[in-house]
Amino acid sequence: MSMLGFELGFWDYVTFATAFIAGGAGILTYIWIAGLPGRIALARHHPEAEAVKLMGWAGLLPTILPWVQAFIWAFKPTDVIDIRRFPREEARAIDEEHAMDGAPSTTNIHCQPFRPNAPVSLSRMSPESGPLTMADTQIALMKMDVTRARRAAGNQ
Questions:
Q1: Phi–psi pair at 75, nearest 5 degrees
Q2: 66 and 58 Cβ atoms separated by less than 8 Å
């Protein structure tokens, strides 16, 4: 007779092993799902990949809603134009940020730097020309849309 008042048999140990394996699989599944938005954002070279990763981890535990928002945010189109830098400098800066995370360079079509056929200047901050106006910004963005449409059609 054992301390429990009954003997543990072979099938009792099989049950314990099965419960242990199922618990481990549950924990690994939770870890994989919690990190999924961050991995997607890094793979898509999202400019806010670190925030998406943290929101994915923090959002799954208390409630599912922040995790769902992070998952959607990870797939958000990432055509970001920073008017403080020219497009090549912006692509280089994004590559440097992702290199710190160990992600590959920008090879995703959604994150390629903008290279117009004719140069588009978005930085007009000299005293004689004045600040960049809303009309100038809209014209530059329309030129960028035309260039993207040409690329999509294969007309470079």
A1: -95, 0
A2: yes
Task: Give the pLDDT score at 155.
Answer: 58
With a CB cutoff of 8 Å and minimum separation 6, the contacts of 125 are 131, 132
Q: Which amino acid is present at 90?
A: E
**Mean pLDDT, to the nearest integer, of 30-43?**
92
Contacts 24+ apart (CB under 8 A), 74-81: 74/37, 74/38, 74/40, 74/41, 74/44, 74/46, 75/40, 75/44, 76/46, 77/110, 78/44, 78/45, 78/46, 78/47, 78/110, 78/111, 79/110, 79/111, 79/114, 80/47, 81/114, 81/122, 81/141, 81/144
pTM: 0.46
* Whole-angstrom Cα Rg for the chain: 26
Provide the token pair at 126. Answer: 């000299």
d(CA 73, CA 51): 10
* Joined tokens for residue 67: 């995790």
CA dist., res. 10 & res. 16, Å (int): 10
